[in-house]
Design a protein that fits this description.
By secondary structure, the chain is an alpha/beta fold. The protein contains 21 helices and seven strands.
Length: 489
């Protein structure tokens, strides 16, 4: 009987793993986006079609991604195509790799059962799914970070130098791909510290490995930037100082701390559902009950970079700078299963319910295509102008268009241009997205989670207060994409 019990138990566990694995593959590789839906995605697609790697590096925005750029150009040669599917396939491929490596990592740190029940929520985390089915580079970062941790754990067991070199290579590549990922290095300590025998000597090895990786990654980055005709050191200095440290340390007062916590909360509940919030509370309950120092450090070392990442504002799937937190949340879910199985399945149900609308939304016609068709209906003439929002700028190439920007001085110039056009009896059109800017903006197929603010504070509200706005083009399904004509009262 004991043999039969073991056989059926093993068979059940194996079947569950296969079910989860197949579900993961289907949810990714069968739902890859054919469109560059997010803010930076059109740039990634455009440069992937270039035959000159260094020229593309030169044209990239401040947060360069050489590894991702190289892979996109390589894939375009292997599977040529003008749409974004090839690039989404890269995201799905590395997402699958991360999924497998994560299973092996958790199995090594805990056991197979914990690993198995950590995988299930990863399938349905909204932000993880979006990253792994769209033209975004973060799945590569996840793969490299986890791959480095796993090989480093093997190094600690066997003390084989090639394993240390492999982990350094993984982490060097992730720094090369995105220097800002350094904010998540502290979470690597959290993962590796879960090893049963983790001592001061291991900490020294880890510090050396991460430091060497940082130096190599930045050095290669500088060389590539210099070869592309840019000043590598200056570019990296700007990235770390102006877009990193200065943003983190600037205005660190009570209001901005509250704002940072608010942003982190919105990323958590929108990207990973309220079920993840509950799983964190249960995990904290476990820590307090068991007084487990390693799990306490694990919690803190993941939440600190997650909360700090809430200090940054950006377009193109808001929350992707925080996306490595998904693996921490997946582990907390597995602990919920070990403690309260029924609650685990309730949380999983909530997770699936919250994920489903996003899955459906991203199967519909792209929002930018809807906006483009609405603008084309008005038949823009040579002297007409159209005002769009900055969030629409990457996807829309519309005749005589001007974009509202975060720079209010530039927006003042647009106000003057509109007035001149109206005085010259020319037509001026404006989208609802521009009227609302920077609030209620589309980020992909859904509204930017931090833009759901007070429309009374919209940038153009004062200027438009004494103007007539007449709807000239609309789609009942998308009221936030209406097009208006501006006239004097």
């Amino acid at each position: 009987m004991s043999f039969l019990n073991k056989f059926f138990k093993h068979s059940f566990s194996k079947n569950i793993f296969l079910l989860v694995f197949v579900t993961y593959i289907v949810s990714r590789l069968f739902f890859l986006s054919k469109y560059p839906l997010f803010y930076d995605s059109p740039e990634y697609l455009r440069e992937s079609l270039s035959s000159n790697f260094f020229s593309s590096l030169q044209k990239s925005h401040e947060s360069i991604h050489p590894v991702y750029l190289f892979l996109t150009q390589l894939f375009q040669k292997i599977i040529p195509g003008q749409n974004a599917w090839n690039l989404s396939f890269i995201s799905g491929l590395f997402g699958l790799g991360s999924f497998i490596l994560f299973f092996l990592l958790v199995k090594k740190l805990f056991n197979k059962k914990t690993a198995l029940y950590s995988l299930v929520p990863l399938v349905f985390f909204k932000h993880t799914w979006l990253i792994e089915t769209n033209v975004l580079y973060e799945s590569i970062n996840h793969f490299l970070l986890i791959g480095g941790v796993l090989t480093f754990l093997y190094f600690l067991e066997n003390k084989k130098i090639y394993l240390f070199i492999a982990s350094v290579l993984f982490w060097s590549l992730v720094i090369l791909n995105f220097p800002g990922i350094v904010i998540w290095f502290i979470s690597l300590f959290a993962l590796i510290s879960l090893k049963k025998r983790f001592n001061k000597k291991n900490i020294v090895y880890l510090v050396i490995g991460l430091f060497v990786s940082l130096i190599i990654g930045l050095f290669v980055n500088k060389i590539l930037l210099d070869m592309s005709g840019l000043q590598g050191f200056s570019r990296l200095d700007t990235l770390y100082k102006d877009y990193g440290i200065n943003i983190l340390l600037k205005d660190f007062n009570f209001i901005n701390i509250i704002r940072m916590l608010r942003n982190s909360f919105l990323i958590l509940v929108n990207g990973y559902s309220y079920a993840s919030l509950v799983s964190i509370f249960i995990f904290i309950y476990l820590i307090l009950k068991e007084k487990n120092k390693k799990l306490t450090m694990f919690l803190i070392f993941f939440l600190v970079p997650f909360i700090l990442s809430g200090k940054f504002w950006y377009g193109g799937l808001y929350g992707r700078y925080s996306s490595f937190v998904a693996y921490f949340l997946a582990i907390t879910f597995s602990f919920v299963y070990l403690l309260f199985k029924r609650i685990y399945f309730v949380l999983l149900f909530i997770l699936i319910v919250s994920f489903t609308p996003t899955l459906i939304s991203y199967q519909k016609v792209p929002v930018f295509s809807v906006q483009e068709s609405l603008v084309k209906k008005i038949n823009i003439k040579d002297e007409d102008i159209v005002i769009l929002s900055d969030y629409q700028r990457p996807q829309l190439e519309i005749k005589n268009s001007y974009f509202l920007l975060p720079d209010q001085n530039k927006n003042k110039e647009i106000e003057i241009l509109i007035t001149d056009k109206l005085l010259g009896n020319n037509r001026v059109f404006i989208t609802k997205q521009a009227i609302n800017y920077p609030y209620w903006q589309y980020d992909g197929q859904e509204i930017h989670i931090v833009s759901k603010g007070n429309l009374e504070k919209a940038y153009f509200r004062n200027y438009l207060s004494d103007k007539d706005l007449t709807i000239v083009s609309f789609n009942k399904k998308y009221p936030l994409l209406d097009v208006y004509e501006i006239k004097f009262k």
